[in-house]
Amino acid sequence: MTLPAALGLEPILAQAASTEALFDAFVGIVGFALLAGGTAAGIAFVFRWYSADGIPEGVAILLGVSMVAIWLNAQSALQQVISGDAELLELSTVAFTVAAFVASAIAADGGRRLGDHLATDVFAVATPRTITEVGQLVRSAGRVVAVELPEEIADVDGYDPVEESTKTELAGHTLLFPRRLSTDDLRERLIARLERDYGIGHVDVEFGADRTIDYLALGSRPAGIGSTLAPGTVAVAIRGDPAPDASPGDAVRIWRCDDDSLRRAASGELRGVADDVATVAVDADDAGTLSTDEEYRLVTLPRDPGAERDLVSLLRAADETVTTLPVDAGDPLESAAVGSLPVFVLAVDRGAAGADPLALPSGETRLEAGDVAYVLGRPDALRRISDLERPLTADLESDSNVAAAAGASAGSEVDPDADSDPETDPTADDDAESVDDASPERTRER
């Protein structure tokens, strides 16, 4: 019999050994939790710094627990190599492993939150909050140029106007671009940014010599089917069964089912199909004969889409547009050759009585007073043509103002003794001063 057994100390020693084992297991579980939490916190911090976004929860927890799994696997493999008895399937070992993984997962989630919070606070302090701070930061390196949009934004001729809220948001807004861009590249970058960030369809911008914006006009792309309909046609939805291979743009003939016979109802162009409902473009007179309750048969005709539809499809995706250009008497465009214009002239509607319209006129054709030209061009080209009329209008207004001033001066000379008492008429002195200021020679003659 051993001495501890003789003294009755075996139960006490066994309890002390069990307590020590539990304490070691607790310390190990806490250590694994700290390892997982620290790993998740570091990964969350780096991820926030690199991507400016929070790391997904599952990824951070998985990476934190993976470090614990690697540690336990390495410890078990090392124990098996050294002692040859790993005791991996004992209840105490299994309980310790499960507890370590559970604590590590909880700690990893907490570490993810802590690391993301710390990264957010650190970078929020270092990140500029206002345009002034950004300007001080980037201008110190001389790498950007600030482009300020004008307070007044016009509408592009020939396009639908953008919403007023968008104009208000852009008015006076400052955009930053790389400094080394040329004026043309800066213009393209500005147009692309406005179209991408604000959903603007067309942008007409003109830069000055100092790379500031002198003129800015915005336009939106036409949406819907209405802008593609020819004059005198409407789009209606009917119940029908077009051919399976029929596509928008195909010419169709609409037949009405009367008992066992078919009767022709109208002809049109297929614009869209949704289940058993077809949208067709027909003449406005034929639209009233079609009913939404009846079911029709649609027969596809062997005809290619017209050139006008191809032109409309291209215009909806291109920057160019078609607009009318009237030519008045005395207009700078009068007697101008079609080939000298910065736009492409599609047709000219002659204003002379009995004159036939000209389709695709030659470059030598000259515009006459009363003509209406249908032109195709970009917004900046259309604006250059409209600017040709402004000097003439300004001259006419200036001439009218000069004539009015001359008439007022002549009237004052004809009736110099008009009733104008300065004491009773307070405006007499003002009128006299304005007349004297306008005619200094007449004052000297007096």
Elements, N to C (H/E): HHHHHEEHEHEEEEEEHEHEEEEHHH
Strand order of the largest sheet: 6-9-8-7-10
User: Which CATH class of the largest domain applies here?
Assistant: Alpha Beta
Total domain modules:
4
Report low-confidence residues grouped into runs of 5 or more: 390-446
CATH topology of the largest domain: Alpha-Beta Plaits
Sheet with most strands:
5 strands, mixed, barrel
CATH superfamily of the largest domain: Regulator of K+ conductance, C-terminal domain
Tell how many strands the DSSP assignment holds: 14
Q: Report helical residue fraction.
A: 40-55%
Keywords: Membrane, Transmembrane, Transmembrane helix
Transmembrane segments: 26-47, 59-82
Organism: Haloterrigena salina JCM 13891
Domain RCK C-terminal: 309-391
Describe the protein's architecture and organization.
47% of the residues lie in helices and 20% in strands. The chain has 4 domains: 107 residues, no CATH class; 88 residues, no CATH class; 82 residues, Beta Barrel (Elongation Factor Tu (Ef-tu), domain 3), CATH 2.40.30; 114 residues, Alpha-Beta Plaits (2-Layer Sandwich), CATH 3.30.70.1450. The chain has a 5-stranded mixed barrel with strand order 6-9-8-7-10. With 446 residues, the protein is of the alpha+beta class. Helix 2 crosses helix 3, helix 2 packs parallel to helix 4 and helix 3 packs across helix 4. The relative contact order is 0.06. The protein contains 12 helices and 14 strands. It comes from Haloterrigena salina JCM 13891. This is TrkA-C domain-containing protein. Pfam families: DUF8167 (PF26501), DUF8167_2nd (PF26502), DUF8167_3rd (PF26503), TrkA_C (PF02080). GO terms for molecular function: monoatomic cation transmembrane transporter activity.
